[in-house]
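**User:**
My hope is that you can spare some time for a protein that puzzles me. This is the protein in question:
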Amino acid sequence: MPDSMLQVTDIHVYYGAIHAIKGISLEVYPDEIVTLIGANGAGKSTTLNTIAGLLRPKSGDVLFEGRSIAGLGASRIVPSGLSLCPEGRRIFQQMTVRENLEMGGYTRNPAEIGASIDEMFQRFPRLREREKQIAGTLSGGEQQMLAMARALMSRPRLLMLDEPSMGLAPILVEQIFDIIKELHESGVTILLVEQNAQMALSVADRAYVLETGHISMSGPAQDLLHNDAVQKAYLGS
């Protein structure tokens, strides 16, 4: 088996006195889709934010391609090849679609940004149609596509997606997951946090189940999809 691309080892994260992450360890291997599922408040977004450098773990380590990135900060982590598409999209509402993409490429050689924007327009044709539109006026699905495209502008080898289907109509959820599968097929490794456990497990290779800051279960996604406890707790059956 190849070396892991991402290795999270026994991280503990606090919000003040609140012990939010209680010793989580996980691995992501090249060319995988790995998903984290769990109830609201389980620690999924906190885990991604810690990996991305937005939060600093009190203890434990995060290795990306063999190098410790724990506590480095996002400005140093993004250029290394790891990017986060955050929960709630968090696009620059008052900027145009193109300006948002330019911001996503801030770590890149300026001479390469135009070609990368063209690549994003090929991958997300709707964004080409909206190139000069103010991002805050886009539909929810279009904003999610823009957030994903902006994260891809840094050319990540590992893309972390936090709740990409949140608040979207079912037909748009299908579109977003089709894009996730296309990204994976193009060679991007993906760590996915998703409230829609059924969809997440259907596209993932492996999965971790989080409960109140710790991992309660892990394994091949198809095994967890058919696990009675997972079905009862997260799949509504």
